[in-house]
Design goal:
- This protein is mainly α.
- It has 2 domains: 54 residues, no CATH class; 252 residues, MetI-like fold, CATH 1.10.3720.
- 70% of the residues lie in helices and 2% in strands.
- It is flat.
- The N and C termini lie far apart (57 Å).
- The relative contact order is 0.12.
Length: 325
């Protein structure tokens, strides 16, 4: 054995002896360094989740606590209000995601063309992002007040909206095409979708614009030289290349749409009637108006499962798109 090998073995054994002498703390140093972060994550995420599951199996009213098992889930899943709110949530998510993704993509494509005063347009685009949901809801609500709203003369014009115009705060939903499913939605739901899309548009546009900046211009130029049209270039080259960013945007919209309550609370309060009572607002009504905390926790657990299903579905769609590309 060479002298160098002997020296290496001696150094290795010396280091091993030092580590063994230091004991347990030396072997678990990485864990102790991560422990503060793990505790914070546990307190913020895992503890509220576990507590919500336990609370969903209890009945708490006026200081009385009773263990009821799964009866809260049975009563929630069997109620007509819950089924109606699920339908409203599905309609809201479909419109909210479709409108926001389409408008954000169009705006990102325009801003990616290096327009004159592009920075000014980008600054204007960020105005909805800096406003709170409550402020946005109040502003959009004032726009359609029948007596003095800025949009009321347009909406109430029978020539534009036959036969008698639209009154967003009070007009009920049309007769549903499918029994038990709230489609077509009420005018208030359409207005809520537009307001929510306007609020989320800057962030989604920024994501897509950043993704478009990473697409190599050489590939686009080669496609145009080969005779591809603008639509073909977008569908076959640009969209597959920015697919990961589109998935992130879809995640953001789905989770925000299911769990958001600010605009519903300030703009429609679930009305007219229950035409815009989505799951998040039903949770608020049950928990903070009726003070039925056990049932509210059950709704929260169901919403968490709904969120997980949406995430899994989105991942499957994105993987299918990657395979097709």
């Amino acid at each position: 054995m060479s002298t160098r090998s002997l020296k290496t073995q001696a150094i290795t054994s010396h280091v091993r002896e030092r580590i063994l002498r230091r004991g347990f703390f030396s072997h678990t140093l990485a864990f102790w360094l991560l422990l503060p972060s793990l505790l914070v994550i546990g307190l913020i995420q895992f503890y509220p989740g576990i507590y919500s599951i336990l609370l969903s199996m209890q009945d708490r009213r006026a200081g009385r606590v009773e263990w009821v098992g799964l009866s809260n889930f049975e009563r929630i899943l069997g109620s007509g209000a819950f089924r109606e709110s699920v339908g409203h949530t599905v309609v809201f998510l479909a419109g909210y995601v479709a409108v926001t993704m389409l408008l954000a993509l169009l705006l990102a494509l325009l801003l990616n063309r290096n327009l004159r005063a592009g920075g000014f347009y980008l600054t204007l685009l960020f105005i909805p992002w800096v406003l709170a949901d409550i402020i946005v809801g109040l502003i959009f609500g004032l726009l359609v007040v029948p007596e003095y709203g800025l949009l009321s003369p347009i909406l109430s014009n029978p020539a534009l909206f036959p036969p008698k115009g639209i009154n967003i705060p009070s007009d009920p939903a049309p007769r549903p095409w499918i029994a038990g499913f709230p489609f077509p939605p009420a005018p208030a739901m359409v207005y809520l979708i537009l307001a929510s899309s306007w609020r989320a548009l800057p962030f989604i546009t920024l994501l897509m614009l950043a993704a478009l900046k990473t697409v190599p211009s050489e590939i686009i130029e080669s496609a145009r030289i080969d005779g591809a049209s603008s639509f073909q270039t977008l569908r076959l080259i640009t969209l597959p290349l920015i697919l990961p960013t589109l998935v992130v945007a879809l995640f953001n919209l789905l989770l925000g749409g299911v769990n958001g309550i600010g605009l519903v609370f300030t703009l429609t309060r679930g009305g007219p009637g229950t035409a815009t009572e989505v799951l998040s607002y039903l949770l608020y009504v049950v928990g903070f108006q009726r003070l039925e905390f056990g049932r509210a926790a059950a709704i929260a657990v169901i919403m968490a499962v709904f969120n997980l299903l949406l995430i899994v579905l989105t991942l499957r769609i994105s993987r299918g798109g990657e395979r097709a590309a």
